[in-house]
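Bench log. Compound arrived from synthesis this morning; before running ITC I wanted a structural hypothesis for how cobalt (II) ion sits in the protein. Inputs:
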Amino acid sequence: MKFGRNMPCWCGSGKKYKLCHEAFDKKIRHYEILGHEVPDHEILKTREDVEMIKRSAAINMACLDAVGEAIRVGMTTQEIDDIVYNTTTKMGGIPAPLNYENFPKSVCTSVNSQVCHGIPSDKVILKDGDIVNVDCSTILDGYFSDSSRMFLIGDVSEDRKRLVRVVKECVQKGLEASQPWGFLGDMAQAVHEHAEANGYSVVREIGGHGVGFEFHEDPWVSYVANAGEEMLIVPGMMFTIEPMVNMGRPDIYTDEDNGWEVYTEDGKPSAQWEIQIYITEDGPEVICW
Ligand code: MF3
Ligand code: CO
């Protein structure tokens, strides 16, 4: 193409394209020709975008901190929802799950064999020995953040504690494997190898996602893929690492009554941690946890 090399770069830097992202685009094109999936410009975030997303993330993390302070035996998952709604709105944000594709609450609370998308309820009372994932997502000034943490309720068995610890390690290993000019499959392999080495299985059907401009944007992120597979990772990408790891079999089903809550088929526990990361030229930066 003859057009554009002296025009302002698509990234908004104000610099001429040939002095800004031309070499970057050529590098991506090289991988595309080799047959790899590559990202569109639209999903890439600038440093200014990241500053806005971090303000959203500050609210998200404040919610999870507040839940961590309050969570205890005898509490209902509706009370967790109240904490998240109140913390978010007081800080000027909007809970992203609320009314998202008819999701009725402000946060997901997934207990024991619930894999994800648990709906807070005043009928679900946390009991001694439960493990709970609280998955929080925030919108601030149109920018999205998303992270989740596990909480141990009272006296939790050693095997459940081990599951929770190992899944956190899986996320850490995935983070370290999320490098610019590598592939999402490199990250996925790091995640599932560690889960499998510990005798666990990784959910295949539900993955992570790009995030920041939208709640869920490209790419869809697998945690069962292998090194060299899936989308090329480039500086400017932002996505979640949020594997769902089961103590038993990987198979899951969705509650048909509400269309949301996902459970393990074998009834064994499942755990998940979620972080939101940004890819810089030097490696990954954790934006929300
Ligand atoms: N927060 C979840 C995620 O990590 C998505 C939940 S969708 C909802 O991607 F509607 F249930 F909130
Ligand atoms: Co997510």
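What the model suggests: DSSP finds five helices and 15 strands in the chain. The chain has a mean pLDDT of 97.
ITC booked for Thursday regardless.
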